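#help-structures

NK: newbie question. if I give both the sequence and a SMILES, will the prediction place the ligand too? trying with pyridoxal-5'-phosphate
OV: yes, paste both and it writes out the complex. here, I ran yours:
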Amino acid sequence: MDENGVAEGEVLDFLCQARERDASFDRVFSSMCTRPHPLAIKAHQKFIETNLGDPHLFPGTKELEDSVIAMLASLLGTQNASGYITTGGTESNIQALRVARNLSSERNPNVIVPASAHFSFEKAASILGLELRKASLDKRYRVDITSVENLIDENTIALVGIAGTTEYGQIDPIEQLSHIASSEDIFLHVDAAFGGLIIPFLEEDHKFDFRLDGVSSITVDPHKMGASTIPSGGLLFRRREHLDQLMISTYMKEKQHSLTGTRSGASIAATYAVFKHLGRRGYKRIVDRCMRLTKIAEKRARSLDIDPVIKPVLNIIALSVQNLDEVVSKLEKRNWYVSTTIKPKALRLIMMPHITEESLRSFFDDLEEVISYVR
Ligand SMILES: *Cc1c(COP(=O)(O)O)cnc(C)c1O
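OV: that's the protein plus ligand as structure tokens.
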């Protein structure tokens, strides 16, 4: 740190320069986050001082958190789930498995996740001392139920299903997982970090939520398809006692169930604002648009003789492109931000709300050119 402070203008100049080097969302097909809704930004700014690590100072903000949880619960098929706003899917997944572990008395606990699970489960397993068992996938990259059944033993403390996989946007057969969880009396956590704010607005009714009796907890991130500000994740439990497993008393005689101590209320206010403002109709409009762009992408890809790995279920399309590494590096040279999947290798495009029909068209024009060079 400098001995003497620097003038405000100079600091701001420096910040602007740094910010200019960041990607502009217009060319980003690789992110599961998007530009926050303008109202979310306004709300965030208003609540910038708030700290829900100290809720007795901020009862107003705390009430907003409770409202957000109630709105999420009703979207996820129940009137009375309990939960809190986390920093994102990673914290939610860690905390859900922490509850499952603490509810059991197994000495060598294991958890069964699909092979497609997000890497946050690796972190969770490492922190919580869990053995992570990976169930294989079927031809459409959904978890294979027989594989799950074969991995279960007396030390299994939880099953995980994914509603909206990170790589292909696939939805696991949660209904079948729920049957197994109920009949074997095992905790079932559904990771809907990405899908939780899309699936309820699709034409097709995919059951993945609390309408299924075996589902114990759900992760859903407002900072992804919710268009809220970062950090906003959601963690919901069907049963209040499960949330209470996370409660500790602080030295100020308050209760706390979050993983973090000090935590901003700003993104909670942002989430409240955007949920209230958009309502179900507003989200449906956003989701319809993202799905329409995904269809356009699929059609254009097929016209170039490129097949998607699976027929898109959500607004993610993974394309089986030849010479993938070379194609990606050429696309990156043209300032496109894309990502790739691992198994099978494919070009992964996410149709987030910041993508326009124009940018999609111009991306595919470039892809077409790049492919013709690489061939
Ligand atoms: C994004 C994502 C996560 C992790 O969420 P963060 O907010 O990045 O911590 C977990 N699971 C799935 C399925 C995701 O898509």
